[in-house]
Amino acid sequence: MNRLFAFTMAVIILLFVVMPSTYVIDQAEQGILVQFGEPVGDVITEPGLHWKLPYVQTVRRFDKRIMPWDGDVGQVPTLGREFILVDATARWRIADPLKFLRSVRDEAGARTRLDDIIDSVVRDIISGTDLEEIVRSADWAVDAKALSEEGVALGDVDLDKPKKGRARLEQEIRTAAAKQTPELGIELVDVRLKRINYIDSVRAQVENRMISERQSIAERFRSEGQGRSQEILGEMQRELRTIRSEAERQAAEVRGKADAEATKIYGESYGADPEFYAFLRTLESYQAMGANTTLMLGADSEFFRYLESTRKRSAPAQ
Amino acid sequence: MSDTENKVAELLALARKGGNKGRNGGGAAARPSSGRVWPVVVLVGLGLAVWAFSSSFYTVQPEERAVVKRFGKVISINDPGLHFKLPFGVDAVQKVATERVLKQEFGFRTEDGDNERSSYSTQDFPEESLMLSGDLNIIDVEWVVQYRISDPMKYLYQQRDPDRTLRDMSESVMRRVVGNRLGSEVLTTARVAIATVAREEIQKAMADYDNGIHIVTVELQDVVPPAAVKPAFNEVNEARQERERMINEATKQANQEVPRARGEANRALSEAQGYATERVNQAKGETARFNAILTEYRSAPDVTRTRMYLETLNTVLPKVGSVLVVQEGQMGPLPLLNLRDNAAKKESAQ
Description:
The complex is a heterodimer.
Chain A: H1 2-18, E1 22-25, E2 29-35, E3 38-44, E4 48-51, E5 57-63, E6 67-70, E7 74-77, E8 83-94, H2 97-103, H3 107-127, H4 131-135, H5 144-150, H6 166-178, E9 186-198, H7 200-270, H8 274-286, E10 294-298, H9 305-308
Antiparallel strand pairs in A: 1-4, 2-3, 2-5, 6-8, 7-8, 8-9
Chain B: H1 2-30, H2 37-54, E1 57-60, E2 64-70, E3 73-78, E4 81-84, E5 91-97, E6 102-106, E7 110-111, E8 119-120, H3 126-129, E9 130-132, E10 138-149, H4 152-157, H5 162-179, H6 183-187, H7 191-209, E11 213-224, H8 230-299, H9 301-316, E12 322-326, H10 339-349
Antiparallel strand pairs in B: 1-4, 2-3, 2-5, 6-10, 7-8, 9-10, 10-11
């Protein structure tokens, strides 16, 4: 009986005295003891088993890790009056649990306050900045070669280096927003622009612009092809004419030289006795006479002379 | 954390139950019929023993590390194998797969295919993949981030939901990197550079949060212009092909005609050279003959002349159609010629 009684007493003590006067702080947590609604003592950051006054004190636990915050997607006009969709994301932590407990009570409360603070800062900064500034970074450098390959005027988009660039803007947003958070016991670790896109109507316009840009590039390729083709054909014609005229010239030269040489040979040879050459050549040409020829000879010609008499005559003068 | 709480709540509930039973038992034990109480106590004790046994060891798989917490405080990180711990939820174990390479997909999702081929979900995630390039064009970039948990302690306790942070940072970094390039570069030459820079920057962001994530690689998948613009991009490719085709055709024609013209030129030149040789040889031959005749002629000019003349007439006269002998002072031969007959002969010959 006694043993049973002792066991029962032990259980009762454990349940009603020991359990309520201990509490566990997880590795990921920090805690504050609250006594009748009033925080007492320091923040407990050391994880493990801790003691407290039973029933009088309760523990409020807060995450001590870095926590994510994701804002709603907002439509914001930029300085250039384009409406864009901006989605920001941030990382924050509870730096001062006491202030945090007093000002926002819990994470849900903190989230709504962060929504207000970050959204408004993001809007302020985005609407005072050109879209190029938001998209490009400080180390923006246009590859001139890539551009010339495209070879197309990019229209109204200027390709200047941004004055601040995306990273600087994120930095500014963080700095501006972080000014307002310490009084909530919150440290804003980081603010980033997660997504930036055109709203649908602007997107359609941009797509049309891209299409016309592509089409002009396509046209350029086509006319380049035609141009190059004509160039090659022209070059071919030039080459053909050069080759042919060169050949004609050389042939004429060769023929000319040969003719000249022949003339020289004839001249040297026939010059020895021009009269005899004329005689010989004439006789040869007589050989060409044929059936169609009617030859009229004087009766007193050399040939017929012996028809009349066989008298010896003096030979005709040479 | 919630795990521990659950365990503690369970413990409390069980203790309360046991306590109640104990008290009831105690109440009952005051009465003489105490024989019914003991089996209940024994049963409860047995239950506790089973629970104690089953919750006092755990196994860590080869790719995992186990983080052991006692009353919420991390006391050790254990390697794979069988390990013991304090029961009743005093020690809680969280297992983290540190050796496994994990993957996050942006703009698409791999479906768990039951066949061997992995298939991709037909669903698109344009809000993840559409971004602006530096020349303010829209571009659709899909990519994969592969990462490993290098430090389980930091992974669990530096940051809440580090995977989500990785996701957010990846999107932010990828947009920054793509926004710092021309759209045409992103589509073509800069893919590798973008992946490299993105990996470095995501890794740096993770290191800044000190959340124990190591980025293995960042790989770009489909990088395409938005659907509405795609046909125009294809048109550019077609035009580029067409340009090459036109150039090739012209080159082909040139290649056909120029060598032929060269051949023709060589032929003309050779012909001319042939003519030259022929002409000179002819001249040499003729003059040689002339010289020979001349030498002989000079030895007896008169006789040779007459002989040559007569010989010529001798060969010519038989071939000649008609020979008219004209005597001086007589009527000319013209009226006697039968010109009409000649003309008719000519016509019939034609």
